[in-house]
From TrEMBL:
GO terms for molecular function: heme binding; molybdenum ion binding; molybdopterin cofactor binding; sulfite oxidase activity. InterPro entries: Ig_E-set, MoCF_OxRdtse_dimer, Mopterin_OxRdtase_euk, OxRdtase_Mopterin-bd_dom, OxRdtase_Mopterin-bd_sf, TAT_signal, TAT_signal_bac_arc. Its cofactor is Mo-molybdopterin. Residues 298-416 form the Moybdenum cofactor oxidoreductase dimerisation domain. It comes from Echinicola strongylocentroti. This is Molybdopterin containing oxidoreductase. Keywords: Metal-binding, Molybdenum, Oxidoreductase. NCBIfam families: TAT_signal_seq (TIGR01409).
Length: 417
């Protein structure tokens, strides 16, 4: 079901497609059209595309941190995430494979198929935009491995600190409306996505990642097939021209460069669905313990968490001045019901103001004013509580083999005097 979804153009038309795709990409990166395009040798990689400065290539803030270049992974930082809606230059990048090099909106197709679909249907982007109502939601996307660097023994994978999270505004059509149009059977259990990125091995038959969500999550109003982020076409690196966006679950279920949705009669079995990927031990284990695959459970809703986005850690203030502390809090499928900060390593906590979410699955903004009793070194710790009464732990929570779901309190340093 995976790659057969894709159109299988003849060698010549595929070449033309790639060439036009390259020209479109050059135009997008260079911000100008290629004047002597017809003289460009076939297979030639234009200089602007050879530039491997990721800050220029992906138009990112210079304070993002490169974790990896093959595939490209870049981390954001708490102080960059102060905006209520994260601007695209401040958003972390997580890729499992190679970014597609030909992305043509005009030829883009989404195939909906799978065991629970009796007649598969194909949509162009124009079909989606014309035939379905469009919605805009702010949706929090956090990598399941955000905070991994704090686990001991260390877990392999990108050593994210706290910057693999954002809340952008997404515009698109509801997956549920499209699935209704296709018609899905009672046997639908799960959906799986298919994308246009390439496996690191270069093998075109292997998908780098093909994850999904239970059918109930797929049918939520906020689960979108999105074509705009923050009111503009989605940036290439974040999934242009079409992306599945399902907030509140690990961001790995929000497939970029979306080409297919398979409606499955069983839990989707695409790349990175099997243990140990994006799974945690069903029952707590000791640090470093080996966990058999059958005892690993799929991560669904992300846990309650918060981030202090102002001030930046290391702030200095004068004695007697009060400090405004602010940031965001989120709780997967739930809401954040309370937010506290401590300046005495968790002995006492003061309540913060918390705004209601703009819509379900959007992060919530908190703020408070803190006063310090004397000069010296302090830490401000932030702790969110979800609508079920669960709070963030003050220490790193349950160790797990892949280092997922670290929702420990965020801490910043402040010097007074
Ligand atoms: N097609 C595709 N979709 C993908 C991925 C990918 O590698 N390929 N990475 C996933 C993971 S693991 C994360 S955390 C998010 C990252 O989204 P971002 O790059 O917009 O921050 O995209 C998800 N969607
Ligand atoms: Mo991720």
């Amino acid at each position: 079901m995976a790659k057969e979804n894709k159109q299988a153009p003849s060698v010549n038309s595929r070449r033309k497609f790639l060439r036009n795709g390259t020209l479109a990409t050059v135009a997008a990166v260079a911000g100008a059209k290629v004047v002597f395009a017809s003289s460009m040798p076939e297979g030639y990689v234009p200089v602007v595309l050879q530039d491997d400065d990721p800050y220029k290539l992906f138009k990112k803030d210079k304070d993002l941190i490169v974790l990896n270049n093959k595939p490209w992974n870049m981390e954001s930082q708490p102080h960059l995430l102060d905006d209520k809606v994260t601007p695209s230059d401040k958003i972390f990048i997580r890729n499992n494979g190679l970014i597609p090099d030909s992305l043509e909106e005009a030829n883009w197709e989404l195939v909906v198929d799978g065991e629970a679909v009796s007649s598969p249907k194909t949509y162009s982007l124009t079909d989606l935009k014309r035939d379905f109502q469009q919605y805009t939601y702010q949706l929090t996307l956090e990598c399941g491995g955000n905070g991994r660097s704090e686990f001991y023994p260390p877990a392999s994978g990108n050593q994210w600190k706290t910057g693999a999270v954002y809340c952008a505004s997404w515009t698109g059509v509801r997956l549920k409306d499209v699935l209704e149009d296709v018609g899905i059977g009672d046997n639908a259990v799960y959906i799986g996505y298919h994308s246009a990125d390439t496996h690191l091995s270069g093998n075109p038959d292997k998908e780098p990642i093909s994850r999904g969500v239970p059918i109930a999550k797929a049918l939520q109003e906020e689960t979108l097939l999105a074509f705009e982020m923050n009111g503009e076409a989605i940036p290439i690196v974040h999934g242009y021209p079409l992306r599945l966006v399902a907030g509140g679950f690990p961001a790995s279920v929000s497939g970029k460069w979306l080409t297919g949705i398979s409606v499955r009669d069983k839990v989707h079995d695409g790349a990175k669905m099997a243990a140990p990927s994006y799974r945690v031990p069903c029952k707590p284990v000791s640090p470093g313990e080996e966990v058999p695959d059958e005892e690993m459970c799929i991560i669904e809703s992300m846990p309650v968490k918060s981030l202090i986005t102002y001030p930046k850690s290391g702030a200095k203030i004068d004695l007697g001045d009060s400090l405004e502390v602010r940031g965001h809090a989120w709780a997967g499928e739930l809401e954040v019901s309370a937010m506290h900060v401590s300046i005495d390593f968790g002995q006492t906590w003061q309540t913060c103001e918390v705004e209601a979410p703009v819509n379900r699955l959007a992060w919530q903004h908190f703020k408070t004013t803190v006063k310090f009793p004397q000069d010296g070194y302090y830490e401000v710790w932030a702790r969110a509580t979800d609508s079920n009464g669960a709070s963030q732990p003050m220490v790193v929570p349950g160790w797990n083999p892949k280092g997922y779901l670290n929702n420990a309190c965020h801490r910043i340093a402040v010097k007074v005097g």
